[in-house]
Amino acid sequence: MKKLIILSMFFILSTSCHSQETTFPRESLKKALIKPDNTNTYFAEVLNKHVGKTTVIEVWASWCSDCVKAMPKVKELQAAHPEVDYVFISMDKDYEKWLAGIEKHELKGDHYWATDGMKGQFGKSINLDWIPRYIVIDKTGKIIIYRAIETDFEKIDEALNKLKDEK
Fold first, then answer.
1. 3-state secondary structure of 30
2. Whole-model pTM?
3. Quick one: 66 exposed, middle or buried, by C-beta within 10 A (0-12, 13-18, 19+)?
4. pLDDT for res 23
5. How does strand 85-90 pair with strand 110-113?
6. Under a CB-based contact definition with an 8 Å cutoff, are residues 134 and 58 in contact?
7. Do residues 152 and 134 lie in contact, with contact meaning Cβ atoms separated by under 8 Å?
8. Residues of the chain scoring pLDDT < 50
9. Deepest of 3, 30, 78, 145, by most Cβ within 10 A of its Cβ?
10. How far apart are CA 156 and CA 152, in angstroms?
11. What's the confidence (pLDDT) of residue 31?
């Protein structure tokens, strides 16, 4: 009986901890982000802008060494999948450092800044626990991959290839 209870608890914990989100939490959609021209937008508006296109979102920061190390892989993805929209959401603490990071790393795509950092409201609303974090969204706005990190580029590439084949 003990084994059955332990196995049941293990199953419940393992499936609940790694569930795949298919939509963003409602509270994340209302979070304000800053555009490079220093104007506000909301996460919902960012997502709406890309409906109809497969989209990769990278949550990053210019101070994050793992983010910087992953930049060549991001550029490889962009070269292999030019049909995909790329959105970068920064967790930088400073507006000028964010803009300098975009320029220094020559990041091509749409850029936004969550002004309150990783532990702030936006980060909490998407359950941000690590950066870089990659999210893949299909053309209908459904989340295909909710949690990918810098070691998951093969998984991201496979998902993008599958989405390309589905047309």
1. coil
2. 0.86
3. middle
4. 84
5. parallel
6. yes
7. yes
8. 2-18
9. 145
10. 6
11. 93
CA 43 – CA 33 distance, rounded (Å): 7
Cα-to-chain-centroid distance, residue 38? 21
pLDDT digits (tens, 9 = 90+) for 70-101: 999 999 999 999 999 999 999 999 999 999 99
What token pair was written down for 9? 């608890």
- Per-chain mean pLDDT for the chain: 88
Closest C-alpha to 132, from 100, 97, 91: 91
For tokens 């290839």, the residue is 161
Rounded Cα distance, 74 and 77, in Å: 5
Upper half-sphere CA count for residue 60 (Cβ side, 13 Å): 29
DSSP 139: T
| Long-range pairs, 149-156, Cβ under 8 A, ≥24 | 149/66, 150/66, 150/67, 150/69, 150/70, 150/73, 153/70, 153/73, 153/76, 153/77, 156/56, 156/77
Work out whether strand 143-148 and strand 133-137 pair parallel, antiparallel, or are unpaired: antiparallel
